[in-house]
Amino acid sequence: xxxxxxxxxxxxxxxxxxxxFGGVKAIRNVGFDIKKGEVRAIIGPNGAxxxxxxxxxxxFYHPQEGTITYKGLKRHDMQPYVAASQGIARTFxxxxxxxxxxxxxxxxxGRTLKMHKNFFWQMFYYGPARAEEMEHxxxxxxxxxxxxxxxxxxxxxxxxxxxxxxxxxxxxxxAMEPELLLLDEPMxxxxxxxxxxxxxxxxxxxxxFGTTIALIEHDIGVVMDLSDRVVVLNYGQKLADGTxxxxxxxxAVIDAYLGVAH
Amino acid sequence: MPILAWRIRGTMMDMLYNIVVDPFVQMFGTPDFLLQVIxxxxxxxxxxxxxxxxxxxIFKASGVFNFAQGIMVVFAALTLVGLHAIGMPAYVAxxxxxxxxxxxxxxxxxxxxxxxxxxxxxxxFMATIGLTxxxxxxxxxxxxxxxxxxxxxxxxxxxxxxxxxAFDVFGGVVILxxxxxxxxxxxxxxxxxxxxxFSKTRIxxxxxxxxxDHQAALSVGISLNQIWAIVWxxxxxxxxxxxxxxxxxxxxxxxxxxxxxxxxxxxxLGGFTSIPxxxxxxxxxxxxxxxxxxxxGGLMGGGVESWFAYVIALVxxxxxxxxxxxxxxxxxx
Lengths: 262, 333
Hints:
The structure holds two protein chains of two kinds. By secondary structure, chain A is α/β, with parallel strands linked by helices. Chain A contains ten helices and ten strands. In chain A, strand 1 (10-21) and strand 2 (24-35) form a beta hairpin. Chain A starts with 9 loop residues before the first strand and ends with a helix. By secondary structure, chain B is mainly α. Chain B has a domain at 31-262. In chain B, 72% of the residues lie in helices and 4% in strands. Chain B contains 13 helices and two strands; from the N terminus they run H-H-H-H-H-E-E-H-H-H-H-H-H-H-H. The chains are: A alpha/beta, B mainly alpha. The A-B interface holds A 58, 60, 79-81, 84-85, 89-90, 92, 96-101, 105, 108-113, 115, 117, 119, 122-125, 129, 133, 156, 158-159, 162, 172-173, 176 and B 193, 196-197, 200-206, 208-209, 211-213, 215-224, 230, 273, 327-328, 330-332.
């Protein structure tokens, strides 16, 4: 990355992106950008193509049309693990954790790309590999402290309640030290208190580490409080784009959410 | 009819005596023989454990029961013997065989696993059955169908039943063959390394991560292709070790492929995802079936060794389906 991207510059730019599965058009000619350091919300009714959008950004889906520019470089059919290596981390709508593994191991898995000691040393867990493991363990402990899940280190994540699973998932994404963090409904199914905790974490991540965040959320109150800019999707098309105040007064958005009299 | 009742009670008592008392009287009457039986069981147990280990590796990383593990054992052993037969020194042949198993792993990843990403496990299982028959045909084409002698001696392994150490215990003698001791040591080393590798290292963690959730693994930057190649290679190495150890005891033939299915009850017992489980399961089955054959087999006309393992597996499936050491099956509803 020769040209360093400063806060406020465009980090990710999507232009005219279309994605279809057979005859179903999930996304139709959508374009928007995400600036470095901002919290960008993607909202819209169910089936609007929000999760598909994240999947496109993160390389799970490859759009048939349109261009994606990340850090000033055009990408073509990028694999998810390549996206991860370029600093894109994410969480999932239906928590996707390594259920059989402990909280600690789950978060350590997020460090995969930061660890480089080769297969040979790994085999014997000796010398460099061991030192490396210790070093990364320390980083992971920071994340664990930050998200206040220290007491869950050894618990298999499958046993945790849903709200905490979401938090572990966020921890795993943070352990990757991402530049762009994609959160798919980070507060779905949470009670008020858990939502407040999660909002606090999201803002702190954004403030302290300067991580750019793109999030999908249904709770409009949360979206208005957290995000700098909002893009609204409906039936795979872009409906509106702007600050929370602009978007919430947009007539098309109100119609989409509340319905129109025909 | 009090006399008949007495007689029935008498036979029942006899039966109970034969099942519950007599075997133990025999065991403790000749403790040296008992020890010998346990040792024999231990030896076949380590071989079962080695077999099971190959299955566990692949199961851990892809959630698939690799039906082809048995034939991989045969294939690895035959490759080793074959390379030696065309004039290569034993150790060169060994290294080349490791290379061949690496190529096989890459091939499996490239032409099978990669094509079947995100398919249900049963599809992958069927693919491993296909791989089994491919390897049988391919192996017979190259090496012929004849049983071969393992080059144990050339590899510096102890051979033959005469190469042994005898202990005087309990007024009798217990004989341990060196090749059996070697098999146990190899198994122990493999287990130690693999166990450590899986639980402590980045790649080990990535392997488990892939088994748990493909999508999540991809999102943290784990390449499925690389992980699968590594895990198939590791199980190829385990197959080679199994082939050498087993081949040192009997010949290397395609029949070994069927014996490999003995690993199934071992896995049910130890848990499909546990490396220590494979070992403990293997030993329990190995020792259990020998003891049962010797001391209880006579009551049922012998031949119990062939089904004893499966009955144990059945009992475990009923009462502890995750096995002794398997990961608890946790599902939120």
